[in-house]
Prior knowledge:
The protein has helices at residues 35-38, 108-118, and strands at 29-32, 51-53, 56-61, 67-72, 77-83, 93-103, 122-123, 131-133, 146-153, 162-175, 179-190, 196-205, 210-211. By secondary structure, it is mainly beta.
Amino acid sequence: MIWKSLFGIENRPATARLAEVRNITIGRTVRLDPLAWRMLEDSGFQLDRDTLEITAQGVVRLDDGSHVHRFYTDDELMLQAVSQQADGSDADDFTLFRSWTSTYPADRAGKETFLQRMSRPHWEEAGLPPFRRFWYEGDDQDQPPVQLWEAVYYERDADPVSHIRQTCMLYARDVKPAGTELLLALAMEPEGGDYTHEIMIGLPLGPAEFTA
């Protein structure tokens, strides 16, 4: 799926009781099948445990009416689900991400360089093989990165603690024996917070590879 651009405060999710997606929400424990990453050769995704303690939850509403549900741990792991329904009952697209790098751009030129990189059809990151652009797949022309707002919650029935404007692009590469590794490049600008550049490495998960 290509996430179309979202602009403006009016696109932020309204305050509401947060969704439980396959029984996952704040305060729950997610159990993973470690074979999801241990079977892959030369993967940048490594994890030394098979459980996630969910302490925060994010919601993104896309302009096509679909929803992105993000579940966070204290050590910056993120389990993401995409659904058409706001309650996540029909979620069928799951990805587990971990942070690879987090940096503060030194100046405006550094910000612009990062954004320009996100427009290109390939991404090269130190310590990792090259990735191809997953969104706009098959298009070798520069394409604008996606912009969206995420509302982040620490409690299920409380207001969001922050709104984060994000500019992002998703990349992928094949890994043996028969898997896919993802790279999510993000420029993040929380309201009242510091602007950062984030690189996350992810793996698609099947519904049978995790429970809560």
